[in-house]
Structure formats: C-alpha cells, structure tokens
Fold this sequence. Notes:
Elements: H1 2-8, H2 10-17, H3 19-50, H4 57-73, H5 78-101, H6 109-131, E1 149-153, E2 159-163, H7 164-186, H8 188-198, H9 200-205, H10 210-235, H11 242-246, H12 249-256, H13 261-282, H14 294-305
Antiparallel strand pairs: 1-2
Amino acid sequence: MDMLYNILIDPFVQMVDAPDFLIQVVWEGFVAGVLYALIALGFVLIYKASGVFNFAQGIMVVFAGLSLVGLHEKGVPAWLALILAIAIMAILAVCIEKFVMRPLVGQPDIILLMATIGMTYFLIGLGEVIFGGEPKQMITSELGLPTGSTAFEMGERGLVILQHIDIAAAVIALLMVGGLAVFFNRTRIGRALRAVADDHTAALSVGISLNQIWAIVWFAAGIVALATGIMWGARSDVSFALEIVALKALPVLILGGFTSIPGAIIGGLIIGIGEKVGEIYWGGLVGGGIESWLAYVIALIFLLFRPQGLFGEKIIERI
C-alpha cells in the first residue's frame, strides 16, 4: 500500500505543495527538450534526403563544437572562429556527399546506415587527433551569449530561477527549427528533398541532382550540429560525451516520426520534460538515474502501439 502511495499519490502532492519547484523542473525539461528537438532535426533532414538514420549526427555535434573552441584556442577571434567553423561543416558536407554518398547511390538502406556508422568513428578519431580528448569550455561570453540568471518571485509560493543561457538556447533552437521547417516544407529544394527520399533513381530520372540535394542537407545538418554543440557546450562542456546525449534524438524521432519536423519538436519536449519530471519525482523510488533510460522506455512503448510516431507517415507496402 505504501508503494502505491509513493508512486501514484506522493509525487503529485509534492507538485502541489511546491509549485515553484515544479515550474523550475518543467523549465529545465523544456530547455533540454528544445535542444533534443534541435538535434533530432539534423537526423530528420538526412532521413528525408536518404531514407537512412544518420548515426553520425551525434559526433557531428561534437566535431562542430570542438572546431569552434579549437580555433579560438589557436588565437582566432570568436566570431571569425564561428564563421570558419561553419566553413568546416560546409567542407565536411561536400566531402561526405562526394566520397561517401555519391558512390552509394541506389544501394540498400543498410549500406548507407553502415556508411554513417563508419563516418562516426572516422570523425571521432579525427577529432581526437586534432583537438585531443579532454573536455573544453565553450566560448559563451566571447560569442555574446548571455550569462547570469533572473529570479521570479511567486509571492509566498517560492522562487523560480531562469538561467539566461537557457533562455537564449531555447529561443535560438526554436528559431532554427522554425526556419528550417519553412525552408524544407515550402521551397523547391524541400520538394526535391522529399522526392530523393522516396526513390533515388526516380529523382535522378526527373532531373533532380542528388549531389546538390545531399550536399545541401548535409550542410544544413552541419549547421544544426554547430548550433547544438554551442548550446549544449554552453550548458556544460564540449566533449565526446555529447555524442551520447545526441543519441537521445533516437527516442525523440520514434515519438515524433522520422520524417516530421513538427514531430521532432513535440517529441523533444515530451522526452525533455518527461525525463526531468520522472527523475525528480519518481527517481528516488528506483535508485535514481531515470534520465539515462526513461526516454528509451517511452520510445519502446510507442514502438509497440504506434511505430510510425505521432506525426510520421504510415507506410503501406503492396505485395
């Protein structure tokens, strides 16, 4: 009986008794969820263009962040380092298209997936050789990102503290998600991208350049990775551990749908807020650490009942 009370009643009693703390927890989850959505957006872009889950997106987040910080450590001014980091991601996109994707046109999806896994370990090795394996501090103030915090009083109900970097991260992530959603859903390139995802050979037959489309989407995914690396790095550090955080995009995609940009947003918020609330109010019942696995449990439940996700397309194949 006590166990049922601790699971079903006590957490909600705590929420009512301390609404300021609940708002703080939900806010932290919201920021994390928006950043998860931004990471997931990079996966969605590549999936739309190739129909394959890009296993390398996580290490692209790390590599982009390390490039920015590494250039600044070499004496390059912060904003010039940012421009050069964007150029590095553009060069990386062109190289991936020319040396990895172009030779694999028409190959089964599993071949493309294995190619992205190979790119992951190549970029890990390249990043360790160039930048070393130690965590690095993001150049937050040098880039003009806000620091400090603002406290909001809730009368007698307590205090809510919002970190300025979290507010900036949420705003920038939402603007990027919204801008890319409009670009890829309302433009000719967006329509061409969907055609490429459906059938590489058919897209080629109607004059769509796979080389151009793939270079564009990999560059867009690189820009998303750079923004994600900056924001996550500003909240913690830039290290290869961020690759594990980036893989949280997998349950986000399962919830929202692999081809849906709005789904990436909704899925990211569900995972971000869900794991924070679960860790704080139910984590003690299982010894803590809920944040490391709750997202995958939620994804498993969705796979059982709605494998295409909330906004994903249900694919029907005729035999």
